[in-house]
# Entry
Amino acid sequence: MKVNTIKRHFREGFKNIFRNGWMTVAAVGAVTVTLILVAAFLALMLNLNEMAKNIEDDVEINALIEITADEDEIVALGDQIEQISGVESVAFSSNDEELDKLIESMGEAGESWQLFEQDNPLNHVYIVRAENPADTAPIAEEIQTFDNVHDVNYGQDVVQRLFEFNKYARTIGLVLIVGLIFTATFLISNTIKLTIMARSKEIGIMKLVGATNNFIRWPFFIEGMLLGILGSLLPIAIVLGGYSYISNSIAKSLSLPFVELLPFNPFAWQLSLLIMGIGALIGVWGSVMSVRKFLKV
Amino acid sequence: MIVMQDVYKTYKNGVTALNGINVDIRQGEFVYIVGPSGAGKSTFIKLIYREERPTKGTIVINDKDINQMKEKNVPYLRRDIGVVFQDFKLLPKLSVYENIAFTLEVIEESPRNIRKRVMDVLELVGLKNKARFLPDELSGGEQQRVSIARAIVNHPKIVIADEPTGNLDPETSWEIMRIFEEINARGTTIMMATHSKEIVDTIKKRVIAIEDGVIARDEHRGEYGYES
Ligand SMILES: Nc1ncnc2c1ncn2[C@@H]1O[C@H](COP(=O)(O)OP(=O)(O)O)[C@@H](O)[C@H]1O
Ligand SMILES: [Mg+2]
# Structure
């Protein structure tokens, strides 16, 4: 295809947007509504995903060492833990360090714990991380069986529930998004079908004067793509506006350590680009589906 | 060039429009198709560029059996045949200029050539000042001339016209006939269905008369042969 022909198809595609008046408005409206929902879901899902990942990454096993263990036994235990397959790192933390951490994490209330600095009741600890957070539980169980291990804890319940929740959230979110995209494609293809139905006589004429199917199809592709992109503009504005508002107000009002949204830049921009891409794809797909059956002249 | 052997056409509703047509038209010929309304003239013409397909028989255009032709090659057949449709078939949302340019866009002519050739052909049919008009804004005769301009703009080997002077005043009709004679002189095959006794009897050419779906007469330098 020559460059001039490509230009011609774009020109025609653009003109059709205007020639079709309210049909265009209807198609763009359908895409807009869908993309707003898709954008909201995507933003929610990706953020949940990110939070979950942060928490997963923070999961560590604290292996409390028996107070009776001597230095050699402690070193031996460390080696033993390192041998477990799937262990990423093992770090020793003395009871003094543990106390410091505790005091720090409790803020003002922690000051009273400073009394214990002379007579520390805490254990020395090995802090173990799994290569794959999902392996945390079996590794912890294995450590539990070793000598000189007083106790193991890793927030058992929380971790299990988190993995479960995450699995479902991802699946449900994906299904919803795919469903929405199908609906939008269907709507846009129907709308384009209506405009084509009105133009089926014209398509017949074009074929009679020697136009190939592709030649006729291209402007419709372009038109579909433009409808999709037009339909993505409002959702993008909402994403950019809404996300900056929400991330600002959450940053101010809440300060839970793990509720940390993906940063506006680049996330909101990437999401916008994705939304525009999905819009264009929906449009092209919708037009492909609807032109097909009108070309048999 | 155009060869039909034992061609029959029965429409889906059961009407038999053509009932055994045999014809052989050479490159560069000028042929009138005459006959009463409903005789099958338009059907005969539509078979040539494959708007309709025969129920039986073979049709060979430019040495190609168009019945065997694959669907994807039909556009190329149609580019070799300029058609002036009885009902014009102009694209209603395109201007006169755009309607004619469309044929050239399809064959990927350069924009410069398109502009030149469209303006030339508009001059030829006397519609240069109406280039920006929509078909709806033109009279029947003017629309017919646009249809003629579109049919000849890309210099096809064959020009087929279904009653191309039906809506024209006598003066414009003669002007159009002059154009057809001119492109025929350049070697283009012309086939023209007509009800004009005056034209057929004045500009003497081969006459094929179709009656009730069969060829009743096929004469060189023939007469119209019906009351006008
Ligand atoms: N698309 C069609 N479907 C059914 N019958 C048709 C169709 N086109 C033409 N006919 C019939 O075929 C016969 C021949 O028509 P046509 O070829 O248009 O004749 P002419 O052009 O000589 O007036 C007529 O009886 C007409 O009613
Ligand atoms: Mg007719």
The mean pLDDT of chain B is 94. The beta strands of chain B are 2-10, 16-25, 30-34, 56-61, 64-65, 81-84, 158-162, 189-193, 206-211, 214-219. Helices of chain B lie at 41-48, 74-79, 96-106, 111-124, 140-152, 170-185, 197-202. The radius of gyration of chain B is 17 Å.
